[in-house]
Amino acid sequence: MHLDRPTAQTVLMTVRHLPLVSLTTLGLIVLLAVGADYIAPADPNRQELRSRLHPPLSRSAAGHLFLFGTDQLGRDVFARALHGAKVSLVVSSVSVILAGVIGFLIGITSGFFGGVADTVVMRLVDLQLAFPFILLAMAIVALLGPSLVNIIAVFVLTGWPTYARVVRASVRTVARLDFVTSAVAVGSPTWRIVVRHVAPNVLTPVVVIASFEMSRMIILESAMAFLGLGVPPPTPTWGGLLADGRGYIRDAWWLTLLPGAAIMITTATINFIADAVRNLLDPQFME
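Request: output the structure for the sequence above.
Response:
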């Protein structure tokens, strides 16, 4: 099947503008999350049984507009969705930054110096990657209890090996290049070689991985909250909203559709941005 020229040009223009649209959408989502207290001033945990299971765009007896409707306890779903966005964005961003920094430092140390340290680190990475994520999450939550800090700790503990393996492989390649061997030959200090010559040349895969990991962390956080392993109530989370609404799918579709749409739009937006970042930093992916 071949597209005619006008259709092909339209598709091409849409693809070219997709990163800008995605970046604008993500910026809007972040603004909604940061300004949740002002955009949706209603208490996300306030229960009003007289207003339970009101559909979207309905009003309470007092005239309050429920933009996304209410749940089985009469709580404002719009307010809960915005406050849930804060949890997802904080968990994903902090987890990605910490896992990326730890994995980068371990990978660059392992790849540049090699030896016993490299062997030990790589075996730890293999062991970590072989360990089921959900079992580790359940073990940590059972031992320390569900909380925002513990969830981030789980994601960092399971996320750093991905960065470490990629950085190690990149460092071993960069270390053989002429400008690095020349720096070693003239007697440059090791720390200077690593900081000035090696580290800047292995940052590209770290940025690309971090871009894609953001969306993965949001999905994992929502999945853990859905299973009851995430941030405990009454803090609203997108996964928690899905879990609360799964028993009312036939009678109150908005309880699962709207939080699910928020997760899908946010992760898809981040993935589109990640594709653009990959293409920008690594031209070999450009067509």
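The mean pLDDT is 83.
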